[in-house]
Amino acid sequence: MAEKRILCFVFLSFFSISVFSQSENSGSRLEKILSKKEIVVGVNKQYEPFYIENPKDGYPGVDAELAKLYADYLGVSLKLVPLKTFRQFSEDIRSGKIDLAFAGMSTDLNRGKQVTFSDPYLVTTPAGLVSKKILPPEPEGNIVTSRRFMSLGDLATLSGLVSFSVRSNTTNHIYLQKKYAKLPIYSYLSDSIAIDNLLSNNVTCFVADSFFILTLLQKNPSLKANYLPLLGSVQEEYISAALPQNDLIFVDNLNFFIKELKRTGVLEELRSRYFNQNNWVK
């Protein structure tokens, strides 16, 4: 069913040329894309399953699928360019090496000075993976119990037992500094190092965005035996596409595309297929 809905969306592509005349597109990157009949999209090669290198058949990644759907909507061919950092994405968009970026990218005010962001196609939150050793046992004798620990905010009641690891200079790091400034917070250059510190018992909670935590558990389901995921929302973080600055025609076109994917359920099906299931895991 999911595949049928996604494929049906492709039929919208024949509208793309008729909607925008040459005069309306003058000066927009969209005109150049339609003229050369190719769109070049940057993707994040370090953030599965938004983009998956050497993927299993039918599972190229959320952003790879979105880029293909958008190219089909415009009626052009697609070229994907895997990159690593926001600086690479912003510079390549500005120079014209790529037209836009679907890169599992969260928005913030500083980034908004360098690119124009689309409407969000996914919403995430700072989330955690906490050691069950520091959590109080569930009350005995109750047939139905309510979980006391659903989000990072719930850890406030355990302040003397909690220490955090997180990738530095991220929205998750900033959230911890505001919410838990008096608790130990250890920041690292990569998520993998931050995770290793949790597994080595150097800290009691690893913090990343909710999609990263879900992905980690899909790749390593055995973690659930000793760690509890805290996925409840504490602060909305928007995952958006990055486009050239002030190109209102281009961003308006992409925003319409995103709204239609939301309305027709395509985005929800993509989210579920990659973050609620592990068929894509190699």
TrEMBL record:
Which UniProt keywords are present, listed alphabetically? Signal
Pfam families associated with the record? SBP_bac_3
Annotated Gene3D superfamilies: Periplasmic binding protein-like II
Domain called Solute-binding protein family 3/N-terminal: residue spans: 38-278
From what superkingdom does this record's organism come?
Bacteria
User: PANTHER family in the record, alphabetically?
Assistant: ARGININE-BINDING EXTRACELLULAR PROTEIN ARTP, MEMBRANE-BOUND LYTIC MUREIN TRANSGLYCOSYLASE F
What protein name does the entry list? Answer: ABC transporter substrate-binding protein
Q: What is the lineage of its organism?
A: Bacteria, Pseudomonadati, Spirochaetota, Spirochaetia, Leptospirales
